Amino acid sequence: MKIIVRKDLTLNELYKTQVRNALVSWFLEEKRDLPWRKTKDPYKIWVSEVMLQQTKVDTVIPYYERFIAKYPSLESLAHAKEEELLKEWEGLGYYSRARNLQAGVREVVDSYGSIVPNTRKDISALKGVGPYTAGAVLSIAYGVPEHAVDGNVMRVLSRLLLIKEDIAKPKTKKIFEEAVMELIDEDNPSAFNQGLMELGALICTPTKPKCLLCPVREYCTAFFEGMQDQLPIKTINKKTKVHKMKAVVIRDEHGRVLLEKRPSKGLLANMWQFPMVELPTATHTIEEVIEHDYGIDIVRGEELIAFKHVFSHLVWEMESFEGKLLLEKELPAACKWFAIDEISNQPMPVPILKIWNAWKEKN
DNA sequence: AACTCGTGGTA
DNA sequence: TTACCAAGAGT
């Protein structure tokens, strides 16, 4: 067997044909039965691709089912209230995905007659649709031969074609996009693109790839060289910074609970939380900082739970307490009192849900 | 280009 | 426990 890989990634025609046929045949035979594979509705494919960004298939499945049941069409999502939308997204993370998805959907409803555009130029202009999602929707929903390069595809192709560039570098992705356009099956770009990702998920895994089960093993340069465990090349990232946070579940004389809506940009944007302060030093008490930040006097009650919550780039070392309102002066506009049975209707991030669940168990 | 933006699972 | 990962996009 002789594998020919030129530096410009132009590949031998016979090699390309054999690889794409082996990959597509394997995918059609072995593909998992996933909910978004039962439809070609561009909207539903779009929803699934956004949910799957940086998120495991097993995590996405129940969210996708609930989301499509609640928002079965572009119009239904376009008309949804943001708080209800975020509630559906609660626990899935990367919440700007949800708001960007709705913004993109509204663009399609308003400017494209509710037809998801079928060119890379137009679909890429939609909010939240980047190079990957554009190619995924185009190829899977419309059968357009466009690249959809994600982490799986870079790992698979780095091994198949022995590409040693650092996949952590943004500009490296272009190499893989060109490689996909060289290899892609123009008769079935949907199965080809999904096949690359499915292969990465099931066979060509980050560690311990199952090469003996691989449908393209005989075409794989890394396997031929015994280098599959050395690829892809990926530089490591830095460590996260720790924030010591203290949250308080404050009740007023009516038994209502105080929530605060986070700013519309940044971490956990537009999500609700309990009043929370960061205490890097011990120079002030929680009551003092709460009074300063929220314009209310409280008395601190019993401790609820303490835990560490790890985000992608920072850590909250969280402590939480009960609190009782003594005096309300100038409540910030982002704050609002809620009856107990209304709390669960507000979209809250996982660490806040943890505190709320601890409070409910105690009370 | 480098940094921001969640969460749960795994070695 | 630490580290890394998983169908990326916005800034």
From TrEMBL:
Gene Ontology biological process terms from the UniProt entry: base-excision repair; mismatch repair
Keyword DNA damage: yes
Gene: mutY
Lineage: Bacteria, Bacillati, Bacillota, Bacilli, Bacillales
Cofactor descriptive note: Binds 1 [4Fe-4S] cluster.
Protein name: Adenine DNA glycosylase
Similarity remark: Belongs to the Nth/MutY family.
Keywords: 4Fe-4S, DNA damage, DNA repair, Glycosidase, Hydrolase, Iron, Iron-sulfur, Metal-binding
Listed CDD domains: ENDO3c, NUDIX_DNA_Glycosylase_C-MutY
Cofactors (names): [4Fe-4S] cluster
EC assignment: 3.2.2.31
